[in-house]
Amino acid sequence: MTGLTATILLTTLVGLAIYIIIAQKQKNDKIEKFFLAGRNIGSNLFGHTTWATSNGSANGIWYAIWLGYTIGLAGIWLQAFWIIGIILYSYLIPKIVPHSDKYTLHGFLGANFGTGARLIASFVSLTGLFVCIGFEISYVSGFYTQVLGVNKEAIVPIIFAFSLFISVFCTIGGFSANAKTDKISNILATTSLLILFVLLLSHVTTHHIQIKHLTYMPLMNNPTSFYWGVVFFGLYQLIDMTNWQTVSANSLHVDDKSVKNMQRVIRKAALEISVFPIVLGTVSGFILKNIVENVSQNSILSAISVNYMPASEVVSLVLLSFVSFSFFAASLSATDSWLLASSQTLSWDLTDYRLFSKHAFNVKRLSDEEHQTVLRKARMLLILIGVAVTGFIYWVSVRWDQVFALQFVMFGAGLSMIPALLYGLFLCKNESDGQRIKAFAFMSITAGFLTAIGIFIWSIYINDPNIVNCIPYVTLGISSSIIIFGLLINRMFNR
């Protein structure tokens, strides 16, 4: 084992130990505390948790750097639509908060449109969350393999170790541990990204490299389709279960002032994300493109981290160890949110739905034994999801290099819930309003989801991955059309 490998591993182990200690202090055997941090995380942690879900090593930092490297500074405005989606979501907060004390996103749809809508919405969210979890852990494991300089085969035990650690971390402290560590992870990740940016910039200055080509060739053969896809892609924020869960975790004392504060904090988080990682990451990728050509997308983050460190061996060793753990911490903070959102969806909307509905979704009414039973299942599912899903996504990535496209597909499929959600939030004044278009709400989500999957399968069949770019707006268009059709039909027969 080299000095570099030993130092990186030691730094990582110390960091993981600190995170486990934090999680242990947050341990609690009550459902509301485990899933929602007692609904009292506070505005500071609320903002950091919102920021962390868009600041993962893969689904954030890598994505920004890759866009900067691939299409230049145009990557900034493409990612701006993700920020717009977050800001739009902030306007839904006053409508979401009154329902978040009882329901998840899918439970709310079920309360308005019936069991079918709840089940299909849960399935759509879970598939998207699973792909995110697997992609994030697989990528950061590959990053570690590259910076450690070990054989590619070593990625398998690293994936298993990382996925198991993140799952166990979630089982110990639940959402409280997630919220407590998100602030630390955000600071580490942004500091590391800033370090890499300065190192790249100093390399350009030192070697008198001329910066050119503010933008490059489009990402694909049909850039218009891709750009429109990205525009609608940002709307995923509206139906992201992690956002709903984070709002629920800060809804213990709700009044007009606290709701406005939540909106302000979310917009502040959007501003932070726009700088870290979007602008800084995209510019870093853009600079790297001007230094070196033909860096593969899977090694772009490690290429920056390893190749542009200072000449001093000691300084280089310290910085690389810090950067390596920081990027794992960023992946941890994004992944634990998705894992806990998946776990809450499985528990509240599927496996324990009857139990919660029996108590009118007031978890405080459950007995201690019922609390223990629910949490025992939730903890088992967390480990199963974390390890099994990550292993499956990695297996898919090895046999078929379209995992990132699959993630785009699942996010696009998630947009099928937007029309039903907006109708439920703004137009359902009572139970009968939702029941009038119950069948159409179910069909809109189902049709949108199946359309996304169908387009994806077709793209594989004809070997043209560019087709998936249309999924976000096609899915949203079909789902919206079905809801509108249902409203028109209902109006015709109720005159």
In words, what does this structure look like?
Helix 7 packs parallel to helix 12, helix 8 packs across helix 11 and helix 13 packs across helix 15. The protein has a single domain, classed as Hydantoin permease, CATH 1.10.4160. The protein contains 20 helices and no strands. With 495 residues, the protein is an all-alpha fold. The termini are far apart. The model has no long low-confidence stretch (mean pLDDT 90).
Strand content: under 5%
Secondary structure tally: strands: 0
Q: On the 0-100 scale, what is the average pLDDT?
A: 90
Q: What is the CA-atom radius of gyration, in angstroms?
A: 22 Å
Brief account:
This protein is an all-alpha fold.
Task: Pick out its properties.
495 residues; mainly alpha; Hydantoin permease; 20 helices; 78% helix
Helix-strand layout with pairing:
Elements: H1 3-25, H2 31-36, H3 42-52, H4 61-71, H5 74-100, H6 105-113, H7 115-148, H8 155-206, H9 223-233, H10 241-248, H11 256-291, H12 300-307, H13 313-351, H14 353-358, H15 368-399, H16 403-414, H17 418-426, H18 431-435, H19 438-461, H20 471-493
